[in-house]
Backbone:
């Protein structure tokens, strides 16, 4: 297994291009299953999770071609031949469950493996299933698979209120509703930019959707959807991660393609910590010129709140802040596995349930550490960039699921980082 070696190298400055959003692309790709005409995504990120979704769609009989070095995904689902998403692929990536809604909506039946547990908590898919049931699906859970059928072969529009906000369940229900008979109203829907992006793409395919970006989505089902070409929205989590580079190391980094709209709550916390964030005509410029950052409290929430996917990286910053910060994780239980690793680097962190209290230290110290999940892995790289000495992050396959060309992007800002191939 590869590891990454990072050596603290003082302030970092430069320009970093931000890729298309992994999480948007992972829901846009299954949308191909809704139509027999081609769906082309541009600005796709080059990541192993995208390769896994490609493999899953191909296993169903979809054609997926990766063009222009992976930046363009040309897909077609005109000849779906298999209606079963196998455990062997689904277990690699939870987002695989997103094929369920589209397959059920277009073909009236589907069998999808249950994703199983994952490192950051139980993460069930009950809300996905309940929303589809409300649209007339009958679901039979057996042998680790969901066997789904639409009564009469077609889903029906319904009013469904999510008991709490779920990004994935909103995406599955939204895709399913585009081909259901009649009107669907989804209440307490997720408002994440990835949902807005999905709604825009579906509309390009001919779907009738209202309200994306608000907590009520209204979908008027249509008989068929057509093809489309759609650019994937900028990855706000990659954006936030690289905004933390000058925050933690000092220096100035311009993140190309970034907008405040995508990272409002996060940028507000960075500014409260003493970091400057400015919108330019091509991205977001972030700088920290002198002194340590100040401690700030952070609570993760659904969008537009502070994203859980930036909590680990923010913690790395706060480990070096002046004062004591309290981080509350409200989305996932058990999402502080990076804390003991950061502590190996000299961080002072006290975790109690969903709350971590971080007392900043003047300087972190390099150490061998282990990545436990995707966002944890990059938080350790950030900590390593700001630490004295050498840090080796092992198990970086997590990193490759969500960050493309990390070494290249950071080296362009003067970082000392290299991959040690196993
Ligand atoms: C998506 C993102 C992930 C991000 C998360 C929250 C993708 C591929 N992944 O994950 O990076 O961290 O949103 O912003 O887009 N829940 C249930 N039952 C369900 C569904 C969810 O109890 O049926 C719970 C989850 O365990 C979690 C909370 O709801 O505690 C929110 O999860 P959800 O928004 O669904 O996250 P994902 O869509 O899995």
Residues:
């Amino acid at each position: 297994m590869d590891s990454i070696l990072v050596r603290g190298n003082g302030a970092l400055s430069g320009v970093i291009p931000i890729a298309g959003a992994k999480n948007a692309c992972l829901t846009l790709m299954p949308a191909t299953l809704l139509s027999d005409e081609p769906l082309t995504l541009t600005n796709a990120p080059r990541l192993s999770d995208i390769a896994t979704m490609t493999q899953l769609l191909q296993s169903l009989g979809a054609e997926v071609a990766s063009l222009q070095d992976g930046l363009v995904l040309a897909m077609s689902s005109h000849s779906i031949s298999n209606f079963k998403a196998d455990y062997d692929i689904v277990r690699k990536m939870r987002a695989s469950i997103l094929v369920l809604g589209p397959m059920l909506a277009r073909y009236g039946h589907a069998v999808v493996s249950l994703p199983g547990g994952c490192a950051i908590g139980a993460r069930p898919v009950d809300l996905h299933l309940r929303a589809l049931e409300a649209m007339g699906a009958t679901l039979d859970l057996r042998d680790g698979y969901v066997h789904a059928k639409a009564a009469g072969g077609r889903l029906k529009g319904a009013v469904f209120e999510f008991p709490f906000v779920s990004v994935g369940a909103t995406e599955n229900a939204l895709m399913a509703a585009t081909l259901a008979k009649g009107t669907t109203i989804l209440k307490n829907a997720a408002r994440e930019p990835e949902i807005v992006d999905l709604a825009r793409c579906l509309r390009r395919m001919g779907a009738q959707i209202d309200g994306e970006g608000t907590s009520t989505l209204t979908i008027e089902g249509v008989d068929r959807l057509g093809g489309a070409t759609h650019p994937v929205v900028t990855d706000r989590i990659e954006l936030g991660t690289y905004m933390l580079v000058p925050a933690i190391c000092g220096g100035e980094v311009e993140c190309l393609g970034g907008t405040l709209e995508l990272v409002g709550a996060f940028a507000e916390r960075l500014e409260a910590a003493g970091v400057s964030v400015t919108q330019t005509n091509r991205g977001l410029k972030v700088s920290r010129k002198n002194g340590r950052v100040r401690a700030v409290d952070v609570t993760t929430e659904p969008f537009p709140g502070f994203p859980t996917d930036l909590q680990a990286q923010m913690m790395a910053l706060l480990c070096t802040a002046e004062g004591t910060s309290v981080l509350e994780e409200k989305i996932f239980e058990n999402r502080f596995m990076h804390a003991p690793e950061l502590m190996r680097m000299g961080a002072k962190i006290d975790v109690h349930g969903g709350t971590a209290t971080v007392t900043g230290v003047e300087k972190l110290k390099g150490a061998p550490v282990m990545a436990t999940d995707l966002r944890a892995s990059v938080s350790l790289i950030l900590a390593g960039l700001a630490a004295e000495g050498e840090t080796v992050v092992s198990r970086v396959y997590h990193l490759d699921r969500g960050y493309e060309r990390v070494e290249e992007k950071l080296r362009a800002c003067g970082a000392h980082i290299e991959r040690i191939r196993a």
In short: The chain has a mean pLDDT of 96. The pocket of uridine-diphosphate-N-acetylglucosamine is lined by residues 23, 26, 94-95, 121, 123-128, 166-169, 308-309, 331-332 (CB under 6 Å).
